[in-house]
Amino acid sequence: MVKPFVPQLVYIEPRALEYPLGKELHEKFTKMGIEIRETTSHNQVRNLPGDNHFQQYRVAKSTLVVGIRKTLKFDTSKPSAEYAIPFATGCMGHCHYCYLQTTMGSKPYIRTYVNTEDIFDAAEKYMQERAPEPTRFEASCTSDIVGIDHLTHTLKHAIEFFGKTDLGRLRFVTKFAHVDHLLDADHQGRTRFRFSMNADYVIKFLEPGTSRLDERIEAAAKVAEAGYPLGFIVAPIYLYEDWKQGYLELFEKLEDKLPKSATKDLTFELIQHRFTKPAKRVIQKNYPMSKLEMEEEDRMYKWGKYGIGKYVYQKDQQQDMKDTLGGYIDKFFPDAKLEYFT
């Protein structure tokens, strides 16, 4: 059982204390007896404890920085939404394959932003620009926000904010089962609550520090009972020796545990494992003992739009994945919608 995240060390930007959430978090962490340091900016956290990279990386992943989000221009977030909404950055999980290792580079600490009203105002403007079309906002492009929300309740406020809008839709994905405080949020059906799911083998060996499969399924059932539209991202789909059986067992468990009401408006997103050359170097440095297979010669190179290509599975393997998992979705959840395979 993975316990809810508690930071070992907290940094606070002085200006964050001008916001109610900043004050509240400062009080909360003081009462909890956690060491609090000041930092001029959430981008400038230095001198983390640790004698070497391996130690400092692990300390950083258990460090929370409370700051202000200055950039209120939202990135686009295809294929899952129109925009990424930035409430947090970083994650306490230790998934070996995670792309945040490369994108966050030397700053793997977790950041939470306290100027939530500014972020909501920016979202409001984006919604107006697209009206009368609805606008989807993805809250988990650069973090697993559920993993820290029992401390901040930012996500809960966001769910209720979007619940009051006509054209806003919120979505996020998590590997954590700590969802109880979100069950009574007034979501009005405008938030799609997604869980990242995988074969037990992948969770066990490649996703340390995250909730286990059965815990995630139990949390998904609670979320469905609370009336949220539910979704599953099966990612990364990873070809290990017994992968077909592993993914079959995942779908059997899901069908067994989910309330029938959850299957009416259920979505699936399927994402195969991929890696870049720079990512491979970083992963090998952060997780030297990992079982993650990244052999370039076994993969197909796919050019990216910024000139940085990635290694994906071979065409016939991709087809096999799509047919196999697509078949499981059809068999166990015939009413569900497969949003994409990539």
From TrEMBL:
GO molecular function, one term: lyase activity
Transmembrane segments: none
Keywords: Lyase
Top-rank lineage group of the source organism: Bacteria
Entry protein name: Spore photoproduct lyase
Keyword Lyase among UniProt keywords: yes
Naturally occurring in which organism (per UniProt): Guptibacillus hwajinpoensis
Enzyme Commission number(s) of this protein: 4.1.99.14
Pfam family, one: SPL
Lyase is among the record's keywords: yes
